[in-house]
From TrEMBL:
Domain of life: Bacteria
Residues in the signal sequence: 1-22
Domain Sulfatase N-terminal, chain residue ranges per copy: 26-375
Protein name: Arylsulfatase
Native source species: Novipirellula artificiosorum
Record keyword Phosphoprotein present: no
Pfam family, one: Sulfatase
InterPro entries membership: Alkaline_phosphatase_core_sf, Sulfatase, Sulfatase_N
Keywords: Hydrolase, Signal
Length: 482
């Protein structure tokens, strides 16, 4: 019988605390990209330019079997910050409005009462900065929040000490609007102070300011959730159909024959001018490279301060790649339950924590492990009455022990994914799916449902048990009926 991961946390925590031997509590730099592909690291050889991420991979450990808890933005972010499945923490779907996707711009009065404006993560949920606060950590977030726009939901109401960024799922990179609605905040107040400036530059600026203020003085938690390389959120189809990127970074890639084309049918308008596939790929890569430069500047500053080696640097994408992304050799992309929607690139650097340089780790790990693992590293207490769905991963990342994780489950409306050991079951709403052996078929090409019915039955039964466990958990808003 497979034991639920949530029950494993306490025992693993006790063992691993003794293994953390750094004299000082480490600082933490968590960088999360948005919709970046599994293969989109320069070190993997697909032509994308990412020297800072390549440096992290050479000086740290790259995880190849790392998953997030949901195949799109909002629930994935809630889970990495809480260490709890979306169905347990209450954010198991998107906090967004659908009408602007079809060309409709809300008036200010309409927008003020839409779900994108009033929805948010349950205030009873404890997130990473609040957990780290008792250990003396100062916390900042610069970038994409996506967990509520009302004051009670904003980062500085949840444990962060400082916030500059946007509050919903996507923006115009220059105008800082989501489909025409301004959405940049500084702490609890809306701001348009930097309108017109490319947002990656702004998040870089704020992160470097934070590091200059805190690095070397006391432990810090810096969370930089870039929106790059997510598609731009604008009503103009030409902007919406690609990723905005500065010209200097576009010029780092080969020119394309045609920037735009006319689409005879488009959900905004017919016809509509949209970006070509080749230009979209170029723009996507340029946005990643611009983000990479920002990451490099953070690493250099920490190095200059003399604390880089005792800073836990973690990088991963919030979900599978989309748009111009390269998810090879995985099947599928963002929003799907195929590996390409939930398995993402991840790199960890922490020499003072004995994380080895230049290693590739294929152990089964997830973003749910982040919360308990950082608690161990920071030597702070976990709340005894909060069920976590992850465990302390440090001995696994150091290559000392196999991962305790044996299973992972995903649910997005009628889309289902379940992994038990090497077996993966996918149900894409009854349209596609099957049973796959990931040890021999990482691309999920050979459906074994007919040849291994006993395995399929086992995985489905375990998924049903997990679903019951989630439904029996103490309910959290905003979606649960209680």
């Amino acid at each position: 019988m497979i034991r639920p991961i949530a029950f494993m946390v306490a025992s693993v925590f006790v063992v691993s605390t003794a293994a953390i031997h750094a004299a000082e509590r480490p600082s933490i730099l968590l960088v999360v990209s948005d919709d970046q592909g599994y293969n989109d690291l320069g070190i993997l050889g697909n032509g994308i330019i990412t020297p800072a991420l390549d440096r992290l991979a050479k000086e740290g450990t790259r995880l190849t079997n790392f998953y997030v808890a949901w195949p799109a933005c909002t629930p994935s972010r809630a889970s990495l910050l809480t260490g709890r499945y979306p169905q347990r923490n209450g954010i198991y779907d998107m906090i967004r409005n659908e009408a602007p996707d079809y060309g409709y711009k809300y008036s200010a009065e309409e927008y003020a009462v839409t779900f994108e404006r009033i929805g948010g993560m349950d205030c009873r949920e404890v997130i990473l900065p609040a957990m780290l606060k008792p250990a003396g950590y100062n916390s900042g977030i610069y970038g994409k929040w996506d967990l509520g726009a009302l004051k009670r939901y904003l980062p500085t109401s949840r444990g962060f000490d400082d916030f500059y960024g946007f509050v919903n799922t996507g923006i115009d990179y220059f105008q800082h609007e989501r489909y025409g609605v301004p959405c940049m905040f500084r702490n609890l107040s809306p701001t348009e102070e930097d309108k017109g400036t490319y947002c990656t530059y702004l998040f870089q600026r704020e992160a470097l300011r934070f590091l200059n203020e805190h690095a070397g003085k006391h432990p810090f938690f810096l969370y930089v959730p870039f929106n790059a390389p997510h598609n731009s959120s604008a009503l103009d189809p030409e902007i919406r159909s690609s990723v905005q990127a500065p010209e200097e970074f576009k010029k780092m890639y080969p020119p394309v024959d045609s920037e735009t084309q006319v689409a005879a049918k488009h959900r905004y308008a017919s016809p509509a001018t949209v970006v070509t596939r080749e230009a979209r790929r170029r723009d996507y890569r340029a946005a990643v490279t611009c983000m990479d430069v920002a990451i490099g500047k953070m690493l250099h500053l920490l190095e200059d301060k003399g604390i880089l080696d005792n800073t836990i640097v973690i990088f991963f994408s919030d979900n599978g790649g989309s748009g111009g992304a390269d998810n090879a050799p995985l099947r599928g992309h963002k929003s799907q339950m195929w590996e390409g929607g939930v398995r993402v690139p991840c790199i960890i650097r922490w020499p003072n924590g004995d994380i080895k340089a230049g290693q590739v780790n294929d152990e089964f790990l997830t973003s749910l492990e982040l919360f308990p693992s950082l608690a161990v590293a920071a030597r702070t207490e976990l709340q005894a009455n909060v069920a976590l769905d992850g465990f302390d991963w440090w001995s696994t990342i150091r290559g000392e022990t196999p991962s305790p994780r044996k299973e992972m489950f995903w649910k997005r409306r009628d889309l289902i994914g379940a992994r038990i050991g090497k077996w993966k079951w996918v149900d894409m709403g009854g349209k596609e799916g099957g049973l796959f052996d990931l040890s021999t078929d990482i691309g999920e090409r050979k459906d074994l449902s007919d040849s291994r019915p006993e395995i399929l039955k086992m995985v489905k039964e375990r998924f049903a048990d997990w679903l019951k466990e989630m439904e029996a958990a103490q309910p959290r808003g905003p979606f649960r009926d209680y």
